Protein: Peptide deformylase
Organism: Candidatus Alistipes avicola
Amino acid sequence: MIYPIVVYGAQVLREKAQPIAPDYPEVKKLIEDMFLTLDEAEGVGLAAPQIGKSIRLFIVDCTPWGEEHPELADFRRAFINPEIYEMSEETKLYEEGCLSLPGLHESVRRSLAIRMRYLDEDFQPHDEEFVGLPAWVIQHEYDHLEGTVFTDRLSPLRRNLIKSKLLNLAKGRYRCTYKTK
């Protein structure tokens, strides 16, 4: 099932998502459907709040960058109840977009490397370091679980400059090629 993607202005994007337990109903099917939704929207990451579910789950698919970065050719993962507990002091500006903010792209400063604990789709624990593009996408999706969107990370001046674009999104004035709600 392909889910419609929740657009900026929806309350679920501002809520801190709740942890999920191994008995969460059909979590593997949900993850599969999230990947279908992500593929349809041609994105690289999708958090459960973006499909209206306030739970601590997101997926990342870095395979579109696989040709340019061979180490990412099979980087397609689900992250359940993630916890970023370490971030490098070294940062970089990345041009970001978001499926929940269609048509909006801004440069956001993020850590180049992170350490994170999480559960996979089988609820097996992992503790890993992520560097470069995966770290960037993971931080963006992790923010969604905290009720943060990437525009919150912009300077007050830059946020003020895009205020009318954000208002238009919240009022439903946007165009995109995937299903939204």
User: Anything to note?
Assistant: The longest strand covers residues 76-87.
